[in-house]
Design brief:
This protein is mainly alpha-helical and 412 residues long. It has one domain. It is 70% helix and 0% strand. The protein contains 18 helices and no strands. The protein has helices spanning 2-6, 16-33, 41-53, 72-84, 88-111, 116-127, 130-134, 142-157, 163-180, 187-197, 202-231, 241-248, 268-285, 287-302, 307-310, 318-349, 357-371, 383-411. The two termini are 19 Å apart.
Length: 412
């Protein structure tokens, strides 16, 4: 095994431009082979994006305003439709660009904590990651939110810019990510604060947190005001947390998606609040059952990565769906295993890194699919960090293999 890793040292010398080109070409090839045929959430993003592009606002076709899904993904694709009409070809091109930029963002994020070798390996893992290639033909929230998340954290954690520029620009990028997937909301403040704390800059931590919070307040105020006007409550981003929380935690739940009960109020916000309260009451009354559901969600969320194939099922031949799911799951389990090793090495090297922004991001994004609702789609937000820590472990294994192989070569 050590010899195998020693022979993999060529990976450390692959140029970034070649990695980006590889990632770009793989996504182009996928886009040419697999058409966009929206299903599930992609259908909703498509419909709502068309409404926004047509000047009808964030609303359903019957004219009713909505706040159920976060507006960010639909707004992004609405810009595409406004510029190029309702074109899935244009969506594919935008997804190719975002997918390639995400590879670059993973590289840049890795450089904030690791050396060039780890950064290139992380970019390579992201470039050839099957699930993320498959998202090229899907209208999704996962792709743009991860791009803005990785970019925002990179800006804040970099030392190349002034403090004010880092916090201001980085916060805006994280806010964009939260408008697409609100699970990243706490990171808007947590990332700049923890980045300063891990360097033991206490005053800067306070100042960074206050500035990030002020920027977020200004950025979310218009959307909250819009929701106050339409729904009677200043919903910060979306009104679906209570619903998915209930899906994962109720007497009939198996930990994942399920249909809603029929005795629901008409309003989206009222429905969300009601189901959130029911989920909280269920957990209070059934703590042991909740613990069992959390364990089930570990399996549901982390032992597979097939949802990207499911979202493409109408554009794929039936015969290749299962083989593709096996490829996606196998790749995910491989990089996940490597990342656990890399994370352990990261913390062992400097224990204070337990409060590093990357650690916080992993803890936040990784716990949602365990505590709230289970599905492999809910671990997608971990991709940049899994790629980076897997790359760190892979570099360590390559160097370890080389060290082990060197004495054997001398003896011969």
């Amino acid at each position: 095994m050590t010899r195998l890793f020693a022979k993999m040292d060529f990976l450390l010398s692959v140029k970034l431009r070649h990695i980006l080109l590889l990632g770009f070409l793989l996504r182009v090839a996928w886009a040419l082979a697999v058409p966009i045929v929206p299903i599930s959430d992609s259908t909703v993003y498509d419909i709502l994006a068309q409404r926004i592009a047509a000047g009808d606002g964030y609303s359903w076709p019957d004219g009713r305003p909505t706040v159920y899904w976060a507006v960010g993904a639909s707004a992004l694709y609405a810009v595409v439709y406004a510029l190029f009409t309702h074109s899935f070809i244009a969506v594919s091109i935008v997804n190719i660009v975002m997918g390639t930029l995400l590879v670059l963002a993973v590289y840049k994020l890795a450089l904030t904590r690791f050396d060039e070798g780890v950064a290139r390996l992380a970019a390579l893992l992201a470039a050839v990651w099957p699930a993320w290639i498959a998202l090229t033909s899907v209208l999704s929230s996962e792709l743009p939110s991860n791009l803005f998340l990785a970019a925002g954290m990179t800006v804040i954690m970099s030392r190349r810019y002034s403090w004010l520029l880092r916090i201001a620009l980085g916060s805006l990028l994280l806010i964009a990510a939260a408008y697409i997937r609100p699970t990243t909301l706490p990171l808007i403040v947590a990332v700049p604060v923890l980045d300063a704390l891990v360097s033991r800059r206490w005053k800067m931590a306070l100042a960074s947190g206050v500035l990030a919070l002020a920027i977020a307040a200004v950025a979310f105020a218009p959307w909250a005001a819009r929701n106050q006007a339409y729904f009677g409550k200043p919903v910060l981003v979306s009104a679906n947390f209570g619903i998915v929380f209930w899906m994962g935690n109720n007497p009939a739940s198996k930990g994942d998606y399920m249909l809603l009960p029929k005795d629901m109020p008409d309003g989206e916000v009222a429905r969300d609040e009601l189901l959130k309260q029911r989920a909280i009451e269920f957990i209070k009354d059934n703590p042991q059952r909740y613990f069992v559901l959390c364990l089930k969600r570990v399996k549901l969320s982390y032992l597979r990565e097939s949802i990207a194939v499911a979202w493409n099922e109408k554009g794929l031949p039936d015969a290749i769906e299962m083989p593709l799911k096996l490829v996606l799951a196998g790749y995910w389990l491989m990089v996940l295993g490597l990342s656990l090793v890399g994370f352990a090495l990261f913390i062992r090297r400097e224990p204070i890194r337990i409060i590093d922004p990357m650690t916080a991001a992993i803890g936040l994004l990784g716990s949602i699919s365990i505590l709230v609702i289970g599905s492999d789609r809910y671990h997608f937000g971990l991709m940049p960090f899994v790629a980076i820590f897997a790359a760190y472990a892979l570099q360590w294994l390559i160097h370890y293999g080389q060290a082990k192989a060197a004495p054997a070569a001398v003896k011969r």
